Amino acid sequence: MKKKILLILSLLFVSFFEYITAQEKVAIDSLEQFNDLDEVVIIGGRNSERTVVNSPVAIDVIDVRKIEKNSPQLTANDLLNYLVPSFNSVRQSSSDGTEHIDPATLRGMGPDQVLVLVNGKRRHTTSLVNYQNTVGNGSVGTDLSAIPVSAIEKIEVLRDGAAAQYGSDAIAGVINIILKKNEGGSASISYGITNRKDGENYNFSGNYGTKLGTNGGSINLSLVVSQRNKTNRSYENNLDKFGNNFAYEFAPNPEQARAEDEQIMAAKGLTQRDFRFRIGDAQIKNQQFFINAIYPLSDKFNLYSFGGASLRQGEGAEFRRLPSETSNVVSEYYPNGFQPLLKSTIYDISNATGVRYYYNNWNIDLSNTLGQNIFNYKVAQTNNASLGVNSPTEFKAGGHEFLQNTINLDIAKNFNHIFTLAFGGEFRYEQYQIKTGEEASWGRYDKFGNIVTAITDPSNIIAAGGSQGFIGFSPANALKKDRNNVAGYADLAFKTNKFSGDIAGRYEHYSDFGNSLTGKLALRYEYANGFAIRGAFSTGFRAPSLQQQYFNNSFSDISTSGSGIVSKGIFTNESILAKALGIEKLKEEKSINASAGLTFRPSKNLYITADAYYIKVDDRIVLTSEFVNPIIQSYGVEGARFFTNAIDTETKGIDIVATYKLNIGLGNLTINLSGNYTQTEIVDFHFPEVFGGNINEYFGPDQTNIIESLSPKTKATLGFVYNLSKWNFLVRNTYFGKVTRDGYPFGKVQHHDPKLVTDLSISYDIFKNFTLTVGGNNIFDIFPDKQIYENSYYHVFKYAPVQMGTTGANWFAKLNMNF
């Protein structure tokens, strides 16, 4: 029924559009006031006259100033997810730190294969490694949502390999966030809630800009305070197909465990409902402040500084512990069992300060950019069962930090508006550390209260150690590592009446793995007025991050055989265990990127692009499956995972983007149609000889699934924005293609059908500077297909966090004021 209603609305809209356009002719010149295709873009090359239209590579420009009032999305991640089809980001559930920072991908590549810039300067990544078998497993991304939307003027998305221009990470493309520098101020307050009356979100944002000095300087300040409450999308009673609580499937003696819980429930008048899980979005609180300032020191020198601070506090739910799990539960504290809560405190700090010198078409830019991400964990509503009644119920579980400092010197000169020569250098320092949690968060104690560090008499070990839900980082995990990188580049851009292009080369030396030399050639030829062909070929690389090289969370556990204490978890490639298995030190990923496209602009109000691309990545870094091997067992290890250059991949795809703008009646209409098809395949595996060709043991089907088919191969957006006097109307349909989820080794392969999500908003200018907006995201309450029993973790996870996620319809009201 919903699809029929949507189809009828679309047909009515198209009929109305065809009728209006048949009745009146639109003067092209009258469209200049709302056409932004000719705006100069910073990204994609050093040519200061580059625009979206004449670029030799594919670039999207999202004018955040024009859409922030009426958009149902409140973060940069969410905005891009619904406006750029080749961009994907989905909130995760019960996935440790990953549900507090959403992983994002571009053109089907990993979160760490897209480079993020702010005002053209490299943005630091997070300290978080995604390792919970989510999209981007084994990668380290950049937290776009740490930058308040109220601070953003526009977002430029370069959909092409650019490692030769910008360095490591730019295999899939580059996202450049341009901060506001306008004068005047604005403020908005909004409230939203889902169809299920949960997930309430509150948002206050403010922006103020003014002149700085008397010679063209400016300062712009932005603030956001927001809260998104938790949701619950679990099955109502968490029962298995036999009507029993799912967790019994994992008990050594399921019948005995079930009988024990039934006795507990009967004695207390409880039912299965009292043992329900909460699965859904985490609660997130944000406080963010950003500044962007320019101060002319003279008519040739400008001093600039920008950056900000973000504090995020998250609370997500881990897996529930049932009362019959006596090795995990201190029954004196939790007679009915408990569901642990993982709390995060995330600090994100950045600043870029520099000077620019302009003289005789020379542009010299010297800058220093500092960024730091600090991620601390706390586990609440839990226990360390090995401590019994002496256990705390809340633990500081440690954390991790990443710091990056970059010094840049960029020099460019334009020659007669034909050639632009640019060259420069970069020095980057990076530091990563893992911090220890309090002892009880990771320690296992014997019945005498002594911490256990080696295999001992099993009879002295009465229960599991560490904080249930998330085991803290131990002294064995703690480390502090750093490295530096030196780079030099040269870039020649040219532009004539018909031809334009770029030739770029870059050399980099890393202190921890060696050298890299990359190059790029991009060309555009306008064979007729408004019609052009373009293409690019480049080599690229991505250096293994410090997080991938050194993250480890191995912990002590009771052997499944009951023979004593063993280790499990993720181990570094420098560990004795890795060397025994023949797992090599990480090396850089190497890539080849080729693209070819057509651009059509038959008039000022119509622009169409189609770009096909091919990306080959050798020695791609991934996180292995957890495996058991006789060699690791001889080291007292029962399950191990490693970061390795285990696979080669090929990605093929096409992007199509069309924009049409016209006057209708007294208003103007903008139609945006865009689509993406991406297919990634693993074409080769590399793994140690000790596995004897057993790929599934080293990199199982579930891991292959994450790379090849867990994200939609097809995604498309059709949006209509109509402005009429005091009114603004937005209707946007987003199509998410089929995805596949492989529940290996416990579940099965399930295909999730394509889905269509509709956003709607209506804005009205109550007064000259006051605007009220109401609307919704996913107004028809569309969800991914329900998971089959085998993949639902025995009727806990009702939906997989794929496609549009598991929030459902979200309605909002927003009041915006300009001053």
TrEMBL record:
InterPro entries: Beta-barrel_TonB, Beta-barrel_TonB_sf, Plug_dom, Plug_dom_sf, TonB-dep_rcpt-like
Membrane topology label: Multi-pass membrane protein
Protein origin, superkingdom: Bacteria
Keyword line: Cell outer membrane, Membrane, Receptor, Signal, TonB box, Transmembrane, Transmembrane beta strand, Transport
Record-linked Pfam families: Plug (PF07715), TonB_dep_Rec_b-barrel (PF00593)
Signal peptide: 1-22
Segments forming domain TonB-dependent receptor plug: 53-174
Keyword Zinc-finger annotated: no
Protein name: Ferric enterobactin receptor
Organism: Apibacter adventoris
